[in-house]
Design a protein that fits this description.
The protein has 388 residues and is an alpha/beta fold. It is built from 13 helices and twelve strands. Strand 11 (344-347) and strand 12 form a beta hairpin. The chain is globular, with a radius of gyration of 25 Å.
């Protein structure tokens, strides 16, 4: 998951934020648009202010594109985690997958249709006010409208993770009834598209000498990498099926209070267990961090009595705080667990800790599922009680 650096609040109940890399996009488009406007209207402060306004307007329309996806997803019964603007545009983080091909198609089409609608309206406005006021503003609006039309068309290219890849998946899913096959075809198409953009960008950079080729190469690399992630996630969903987090979690786990000192921890019964990583909880029992033995080794012995566990513990990522009803495949696709270092915490409706999943639990579940065995703890072998 791409985590927002700066939260912007909520729109229609959906969390919105920006990643710091969006500043690069803002600066780049301000520069490109500013140069174009300066050539036509002269180099002035007004021209560059209009260019900056256009770049901000483009980011706003990108946000509208992603919010359209998210709003339709929520109305279709799909959870939405957050919308994030970043270097290459925006992304809507969905908490789970669409439930049927129709929902998948509606969610995928919402963004491009929104961009296309915005683009057409802004172009009409630009043409109406052009003869009336002149100056850089109509040209900026024309650029903004054209960029939205291009955004709509580009996003409809048939390769995951682009919206066109989602459309392709939905259509194949509806025709064949095989979601895994549909996802695999869309992801392979995304890989081909990504490689094509990498080659095209490289040719533009080397043969034409246009630095814009670097942008195409970056975009191609992102599409290729994301398509590979989609392929891996599709395989994971297929192997794990409907296995839920609660099916493999360890219930009533040992936890460490953030208020303890490190010396308190080392005097507790926890040191006599075989566990190597622990959830850290606040006074209400809510998980807020994760602590492994390796996190303590760099702390001087003299500081153990005065250093709180909460100061040493690593912050628990939002993706590592889940409910027991979530699909294991969906969580595993978003969380990277390093053995003896990371952990997934399972919480109840009041956000209190009720279980944990470790890297070992996850690996075992995947391996058992790949062999056609149940990943559920309750269905694993238990020795018979012989009464001896």
């Amino acid at each position: 998951m791409l985590r927002p650096t700066i939260p912007l609040g909520r729109v229609a109940g959906i969390r919105v934020g920006v990643h710091w890399s969006v500043l690069v996009t803002l600066g780049l488009f301000t520069y490109l648009l500013g140069r174009s406007l300066a050539d036509a209207h002269g180099n002035s402060v007004v021209v560059w202010l209009v260019a900056a306004t256009g770049a901000v307007g483009l980011l706003a329309t990108l946000l509208a594109h992603e919010l359209a996806h998210s709003i339709v997803a929520r109305r279709s019964g799909t959870r939405v985690e957050v919308v994030v603007l970043w270097l290459l545009g925006g992304v809507s983080e969905l908490g789970d997958e669409p439930k049927d091909p129709r929902s998948d198609l509606r969610i995928a089409m919402a963004g491009p249709l929104t961009s296309l609608g915005i683009g057409v309206i802004v172009l009409i406005v630009a043409n109406l006010i052009g003869p009336l006021m002149g100056g850089p503003v109509p040209d900026m609006l024309g650029w903004l409208g054209a960029m939205n039309v291009v955004l709509a068309v580009f996003n409809l290219l048939p390769g995951a993770p682009l919206d066109g890849g989602r459309v392709l998946r939905a259509l194949i899913w509806r025709r064949t009834g095989d979601r895994l096959r549909a996802t695999t075809i869309a992801a392979h198409s995304g890989r081909i598209l990504g490689l094509g953009l990498l080659i095209l960008g490289g040719a533009e950079l080397l043969l034409v000498g246009n630095a814009g080729g670097l942008w195409l190469m970056l975009l191609g690399w992102f599409l290729y990498s994301a398509a590979n992630v989609e392929l891996a996630a599709a395989g994971l969903r297929h192997r794990l099926g409907d296995t839920r987090i609660r099916d493999i979690m360890t219930e009533h786990p040992l936890s460490v209070s953030a208020d303890w000192s490190v010396a308190d921890l080392l005097r507790s019964q926890i040191v006599h267990t075989d566990h190597r990583v622990f959830p850290v909880t606040d006074p209400a029992g809510r998980p807020i961090g994760v602590l492994s033995w390796s996190d303590l080794t760099a702390l001087p012995a003299a500081a153990r009595a005065t250093t709180a566990v909460g100061k040493v513990a690593r912050t628990l990522p939002p993706t590592a705080r889940v409910s027991g009803d979530e699909l294991l495949s969906a969580v595993a696709a978003k969380v990277v667990l390093r053995p003896d270092f990371d952990i997934i915490t399972v919480i109840d409706p009041h956000e209190r800790l009720i279980g944990v999943v470790t890297a070992t639990d996850l690996t075992l579940a995947v391996q058992r599922s790949a062999l056609g065995l149940s990943a559920r703890r309750s269905e694993r072998f238990r020795p018979p009680n012989t009464g001896l």
